[in-house]
Design brief:
Largest sheet of chain B: 7 strands, mixed
Largest interface: A-B, 25 and 26 residues
Distance between the termini of chain A: 40 Å
Strand content of chain B: over 45%
Largest sheet of chain A: 7 strands, mixed
Number of helices of chain A: 1
Structural class of chain B: mainly beta
Radius of gyration of chain A: 13 Å
Shape of chain A: globular
Oligomer: heterodimer
Distance between the termini of chain B: 34 Å
Order of helices and strands of chain B: EEEEEEEEEEEEE
Amino acid sequence: QVQLVQSGAEVKKPGSSVKVSCKTSRDTFNTYAISWVRQAPGQGLEWMGGVIPIYRRANYARKFQGKLKINTDESTSTAYMELSSLSSEDTAIYYCAREGSGGYIDFWGQGTLVTVSS
Amino acid sequence: DIVMTQSPDSLAVSLGETATINCKSSQNLLYGAINKNSLAWYQQKPGQPPKLLIYWASTRDSGVPDRFSGSGSGTDFSLTISSLQAEDVAVYYCQQYFRTPYTFGQGTKLEI
């Protein structure tokens, strides 16, 4: 059974950063790309970026370049998403997800709620 | 970026009837090397992450009932849900994975 287990909810001040983790199995980590997708309250889905863990190569949506960093830890089969310069507009549920062959997302983490509030 | 536009934004259908959701892409999603369209459909219920229903425009994911079917090619796609059941109430999204940034439609809310 494929599992992606994310870290817990966060409350952050405007201007600060947040780091969310996504622990996977070794098989997922070594074989598949991991995407990060967010969903603002009551809104749709937004792809932020992704990483191929074995190559440590990340790809970011233009909107998030300079603000988002995705990296991985091979020793724990964990991917991380760090978002900086937070504003209220970054309040959202953040999902990590496994990309199947080609880029569709076949498994999702449970989501991590990040609330940005002063 | 490739823009995905779904229609309608919301849809009310009676139990047992058929619902059709449309998705239009601003660019051709046909991946010529394998002659497949890079288009997926997801179902999202409140408080849950999305669930993959269809990929390559028409391939049902494992365990997805055959009431769900996908069709289309190029820039125009559809998700059809036949014999609608109460459990199908959800928001449905299309997504292109032809090119990054991957992009989603705005979602279609399906109600009974």
